[in-house]
Amino acid sequence: MERSWSDAAAAAFKAYPWRTEQERERARQEAELVAFGECVEVDDLPIAVRKWLRRRTDGPFSGWTWKGESWRTLIEGFEKAILSQALAASGGNGTAAARALGTTARVVAYKARKYGLEMNFRKKNRTTKKAKKEGK
């Protein structure tokens, strides 16, 4: 589903120095996939593009305009977009996404369940105390 793009998001996307056309196309598809509203905003762009843009502008939210959304809606939209991008960048690995975001795997797992995002964790072979006592 193609979405419309805000002027700021379109300008940032066009100005970003893409390495290949494939990378650009994947980023466009990802931005349209994670867009919270009907329109792709700067906050929906991939992390690399937003970091690049932040270094060239006056902050992380330049180009963003408030459209009357509630605080909760804004925060949840932001959390979902960032978490889905972090999970995509880590190949769905929740532990790696948590490390990249500077939080715990437990927080990432909770938020992923809350927003219906798919992820996986490396599972360690742990034996329970009860299994150790029984010699298993």
Lateral strand order in the biggest sheet: 1-2
- Total number of beta strands: 2
Number of helices, where a helix is a run of at least 4 consecutive DSSP H or I residues = 7
Biggest sheet architecture: 2 strands, parallel
Q: In total, how many domains does the architecture comprise?
A: 2
The average pLDDT score comes to 80
Percent helix range: 55-70%
How far apart, in Å, are the first and last alpha carbons? 52 Å
Order of helices and strands: EHHEHHHHH
Structural class: mainly alpha
The whole-angstrom Rg is: 18 Å
The dominant shape is globular
Note the beta-strand portion. Answer: under 5%
Summarize the structure in short.
The chain contains 7 helices and 2 strands, in the order βααβααααα. By secondary structure, it is mostly helical.
Description:
The model has no long low-confidence stretch (mean pLDDT 80). The protein folds into two domains: 1-65, no CATH class; 67-123, Arc Repressor Mutant, subunit A (Orthogonal Bundle). Helix 4 packs across helix 5 (94-101), helix 4 (71-89) packs across helix 6 (105-115) and helix 5 (94-101) packs across helix 6 (105-115). The radius of gyration is 18 Å and the shape is globular. It starts with a strand and ends with a helix. It is mostly helical and 136 residues long. A two-stranded parallel sheet has the order 1-2. The chain has seven helices and two strands; from the N terminus they run E-H-H-E-H-H-H-H-H. Helices cover 57% and strands 3% of the residues. The chain has helices at residues 7-15, 21-34, 47-56, 71-89, 94-101, 105-115, 129-134; strands at residues 4-5, 39-40.
